[in-house]
Every structure is written in C-alpha cells, then in structure tokens.
Design a protein that fits this description.
The chain has 147 residues and is an alpha/beta fold. It has a single domain, classed as D-tyrosyl-tRNA(Tyr) deacylase (D-tyrosyl-trna(Tyr) Deacylase, Chain: A, 3-Layer(bba) Sandwich). The chain contains 3 helices and 8 strands, in the order βββαββαβαββ. Strands 1, 2, 3, 6, 7 and 8 form a 6-stranded mixed beta sheet that branches. The chain has a two-stranded antiparallel sheet with strand order 4-5. The longest helix has 17 residues. The model has no long low-confidence stretch (mean pLDDT 97).
C-alpha cells in the first residue's frame, strides 16, 4: 500500500463523466491511495493508524504537532493505481504490481471504513472513474508512505 498525503486548505474531486462533485473537504488531508497486489486488512490497519496519528497539522505556533484526529480535520481519499507504476523496463509504465480492480476496491473501501471508525470525517473520489482534482496545498506539506 502506498499513500501520498498532502495537507490542504481545501480539495475537491469531480467525476468527469457527469461533472458531479463526488468528494470535497476543507482543512485536512488529501490522500492518494495505491493498493498493490497482496495488500490485506493488515496493511489497511497499519496505514490507517499511521494516517490518523500523522502529526502534520499545525498547532497554535504553526508547528506540525497535531494529527487530523487532534484538529478534527477531514480526509479526502482517492484511489490511484498509478502509484504502483514500474518504469524500470522503459518509458511506458507497467502496472503489474497494482492490485486488480476488484481487489483494490475492497481494500480501498476497508481503508475508508477504518478511518471513519476513528471518528474522522472522510470524503472520497469515485473509484475507477476519470476524475478532476482541485487542491489548495497548505505548506506545502507532502508525505509519501509505503508499507
């Protein structure tokens, strides 16, 4: 499992097919989630715990000392299989390490459920659809996490 976590002032995901805004948050974290072959509930639990406790939100002194749980911030999660692209064989990426769509969807949905169980307000993208993403980065703060 691979996460690209960006602290944002706001973020929005629009499904291109129909122009519907499918996920939108204010202050919080925008997360791209890449599921790889073999990821299980164990990886979900470890990654969710890490994300919920990640101290990248600003405190009153503008220092990164707080988590989204501490600040009651929101998280917008978008599935992105391209995070597991392999370009070692040339210039055209291979996605052989990414989980198959049905497997990835199950892990993605578990990830969202586990975040919500921690009391975090979670918005999502539209799994498998072509989307446009707008984000106002805060900092910028970007953390890449791989299990």
């Amino acid at each position: 499992m691979r996460l690209v976590v960006q602290r944002v002032k706001k973020a929005r995901v629009t499904r291109v097919e129909d122009g519907e805004v499918v996920g939108e948050i204010g202050n919080g974290l925008f997360v791209l989630l890449g599921v790889k072959k073999g990821d299980t509930e164990k990886e979900v639990n470890v990654s969710v715990d890490k994300l919920a406790k990640l101290r990248v939100m600003s405190d009153s002194n503008n220092k990164m000392n707080l988590s989204v749980v501490d600040t009651k911030s929101e998280i917008l999660v978008v599935s992105q299989f391209t995070l597991h692209a392999d370009t070692t064989g040339g210039n055209r990426p291979s996605f052989i390490n990414a989980a198959l769509p049905n497997d990835a969807r199950k892990i993605y949905e578990q990830f969202i459920i586990k975040l919500k169980e921690k009391g975090i307000k979670v918005e999502t993208g539209s799994f498998g659809d072509y989307m446009e993403i707008e984000a106002v980065l805060d900092g910028p703060v970007t953390i890449i996490y791989s299990d």
